[in-house]
Amino acid sequence: MRPRVLRALEWLACQGEMMTITDPDMVQSQVGVLNKVSAILAVLEEGPAHLETVISETGLKRPTVRRLVLAMQELGLVEADQQEQFIVGPRLIRLARAAHQAIVHRELRQQLSALRATTGVRSVRLERRCDDQRICMAEDPRLNSAATDRKPARVAAMGDDPVSRVFLAWQELSQGREVWRDAAAECSAIRCRGWVQGVADGGLVLAVAVRGRDGELAAVLSLSSRFQRTRREASYGHEVITVAIEAAARISHHLRANETTGLVEGLEDRAQRVGPRSVE
């Protein structure tokens, strides 16, 4: 039990009455019932808890706790096992997953924005493969190009563009597919180099592999520019390629560090061992 809550409960016992007590560090809203629900969830953040534990930790009256817990069960915010221990429910697990994904996406956008600003390209994208399609995970286009440039689709079919060539390079060799000797040599070169560039959709595209665990391909980072701005050389220079490779390495580390593990997986494991049950 938290020391300050214990002292507060002891003080109230001396006064001969029981009131709503929550952790002094907890942010309070102007809605009393939300404060009570928040107090219950704060207890469950520490792990499974019996009804008596929730009552003693929050300082709420028994009828109040029972009423709120039953309502929270109906909403999927709380689950109870056969020992009447309560844990956070499946709806909170889904919310935790959504919050985690939102945070990861925001941080990715920040990294893509920094890369676009450094290189001066038209747009930067991060894509993953799903079967025979490329799916855009995050993108940072130049704002003043929106009116004149055709915005790439969020989902695109695999083709002969640089991004698809990186995806196919990993697929052909990792899955042991039979390919022509020249194609096999190109795939091997792309895997070794980690990037490829070329013309696609009227612009110059640089595609860089974002590696996952054990060297597998996690995603592809692409930089796109108007073809006109690179008339002298139909390719990106060494400096831009180096910056892009470094950015891909940071994104790779970011994706591995922010995989849905830890808290969310722990909550999912608990939920699998728990079945819905009402408070007796």
Automatic annotation (TrEMBL):
It comes from the Bacteria. SMART domains: HTH_ICLR (SM00346). One of its GO terms (biological process) is negative regulation of DNA-templated transcription. Residues 31-117 form the HTH iclR-type domain. One of its GO terms (molecular function) is DNA binding. Pfam families: HTH_IclR. Gene3D superfamilies: Winged helix-like DNA-binding domain superfamily/Winged helix DNA-binding domain (1.10.10.10). Transmembrane segments: none annotated. This is HTH iclR-type domain-containing protein.
